[in-house]
Each structure stands twice: as structure tokens, then as C-alpha cells.
Amino acid sequence: MAGVVLVTGGSGYIAGFTIRQLIEQGWTVRATIRNLRREAEVRDWLKVDNDRLSLFAADLTSDAGWAEAMAGCSHVVHMASPIPAHHVKDENELIVPARDGALRALRFARDAGVTRLVMTSSVAAIFYGRTADKDSFTEADWTDIAGGDVSAYAKSKTIAERAARDWIAAEGGSLEFVTVNPGLVLGPLLGTDFSPSLEAVKRVLEGAYPALPDLGFNLVDVRDVADLHIRALTAPDMSGERFMAVAPHGFLRLAEIAAILCERLPDHAGKVPTRRMPNWAMRIVSLFDPVIRQMIGELGKTRHAEPTHAIEKLGWRPRPAADSVVDTAKSLIAMGVSKV
Ligand code: NAP
To answer: Would you say the CB of residue 13 lies under 6 angstroms from ligand 1?
Structure first.
């Protein structure tokens, strides 16, 4: 099945792989970017058949351009949402565009007669804000934004997904709504401008930490995340579905990522730290560094999540997390981003 699909946030990392796969599978793709001045740059790194891709200007914070971008589309993948590369002073810098942008995408999709919208949410809308020591999560779990360990980004993804589901229930009509909730997305780069999610591997590879903090992440490959979005776009009976996009047994600590790099890329692992950083040392650093402060609540935490639902319902076959770690590092080196 292939039709006309709009991908929002067409300049993004996951969007790039999704657009490529959609075009390979015969879809006609439209994509929004904030400003058409970037059209040539985006086309240059996507390297797809330009006749199958049209670009439109639309921002999450304004109605301008959305109706034109949606006109004639059967499906929408709503991926645009702010990802902070640095600590944000005001959490509304993330929350407002994420929430209002999702509602805007839904409203314009319904009005254009779109049949299904797949929204990219996150495990950040699932894992956080709990006082109990819960270490295992499914699609039934939700982040409690009133909890203590909830970052501005996690709040933005939770509030946006909740608002979208509430809107669908009240005003969605026949528009079907599905979310894909990825873990930390890794994989090859499309260009030298890459998602902040690759920083964990980049920093370990480059020896940016003198020692390894006791932090872990549920990893997933960008190529598999793109594939899951397309499966969610086309499979029958999807209305209201929620799929975690994580690799099987893909919760890896930084020390495990370091060990994978040392074992599988020994010629490039000279800067990879091997010592563990004690949690007390991280706590001292966090007093001076707001980025580290955001991670303090995660020290020593385990958050198991498995892709069982997507495997069973959609036949999704994500690759092992270790392969994505290696492919990320190889790509960072090949693109000249990491000199190791
Ligand atoms: P990315 O490369 O930073 O892409 C984010 C996209 O959102 C960019 O195209 C960006 O446009 C766009 N955007 C941000 N603010 C916007 C605004 N006000 N108006 C219009 N567009 C705006 O990151 P990504 O990793 O591909 O993320 C894509 C989606 O996946 C996001 O919804 C993110 O929350 C979700 N996600 C990502 C991860 C991960 O580990 N990467 C994990 C879970 C969920 P510009 O290029 O103009 O900034």
C-alpha cells in the first residue's frame, strides 16, 4: 500500500530515514521544514528521487503553510518536535511547540481528510516521574509529569502525546491515531548535522568523559524506527495504538557501550574510557553543570523495555543494539565528525 504521505520535520534525523524508506516503497512524499531556504540542503543530504518529494514551509508554532502541505495527503507522520541540544532555561520552549504542534498537525490532517496520523512520541512519555523503584515498562505506562525526575523534554513529549490522544477522542472524527515511542535513537548519520541522540556514543568514542557515569539507555536503530513508523502507517486496526520502539534487550549502560566499541572497533577505541565514574563524583559535577544535573536522577537506574508489542502486532524485526552502536561509531568516523 502506498499513497501520498506528509512527514513533518523533514530536516530531522529520523525523518530522513523515514522519507527514504517511504520513497523506496513507492509513496509520494511531502515534507515540512521550517523555512524553504533550507530546501536545497535537505534534498542534498536526503539523496532521493526529487520528483517524489515536495517540501513545504510550516512551523509548529504557526498555522501558516499547514493546509497547503496536507492538501491531498492520505497519511501523515508527525515527527517535528524540539529536541534540546543544551539545557533549556524555560521548559515552555519545548512544551509549547511540542503540544501545540501536535494539535495543529491533527487539526489540519482531519480537515484535509487524512485517514491516519502516526505521531513520533518517545519512551520519555512512558518512563519517568515515579517515586517507586519501577524498572520495567510497557506501553501501558505513562510518565507522571508531577514526579521529581522529569526533564523538560520528557514533559514536552508526555504533554504532547496526552493532548493528542485527548483531542482525537473529542474531535478526531474518523482520523486514526497511532504513536511510535522510540528509545535513544542511534545509527548511521545522514550528514554532519545529526540528532543529539548520537551524543552518548560520540562522547564515549571520543573519550569526552574521563570515566564512565553509571547511566543506561534503551537503544534503537534509526533504520528500524523508520520501518516501524511505516508499518504503523499501513497495518489494519491501528486506531489508538502505542508502540515502544526499542531494540530487544536493548537497555545498555555506558560501560557496556564502551565495551562494545573496544571489542568491535579496536583500532578506533584508543580514547574510550574504561574506568567507572563513582556516583558521588557525578553529584559534585552536577552542582556546577546543569546538563549533568538533569541526568543525576538516572544514575544507577535500570529501565527495561521490550519491543514485544511491535513484534507481535506489526512483525517488526529490530536489529541488536550492539550493531547500532558499532554502525553509529563507524559513521561518525567515516563522516569525519569523530577523529579517533
Ligand atoms: P531532530 O533531527 O532534531 O529532528 C527534529 C525535527 O523537528 C527537525 O526537523 C526540526 O526542525 C523540527 N522542529 C523542531 N522545532 C520545530 C518547530 N518549532 N517547527 C517546526 N519544526 C520543528 O531529531 P530526531 O531525533 O529526528 O527527532 C524526531 C522525532 O523523534 C521528535 O519528535 C523526537 O522527540 C522523537 N524522538 C527522538 C528520539 C531520539 O533519540 N532521537 C527518541 C525518541 C523520540 P529544524 O531542523 O528546523 O530544527
So the answer is: yes
**For a pocket test of ligand 1, which of 56, 81, 128, 221 has the largest count of ligand atoms closer than 8 A to its C-beta?**
81
DSSP calls for 27-59: -EEEEEES-GGGHHHHHHHH---GGGEEEEE--
Q: Among 84, 106, 105, which Cα is nearest to 95's?
A: 84
Q: Which helix (H) or strand (E) holds 283?
A: helix 279-288
Domains of the chain: 4-187+218-247 (3.40.50.720)
- Whole-prediction pTM value? 0.97
Question: What is the C-alpha separation between 154 and 2, in angstroms, rounded?
Answer: 33
Complete edge-to-edge strand list for the sheet that includes strand 184-186? 184-186, 216-221, 251-253
> Rounded distance, CA 10 to CA 12, Å?
5
pLDDT band for 85, please (50, 70, 90 cuts): confident
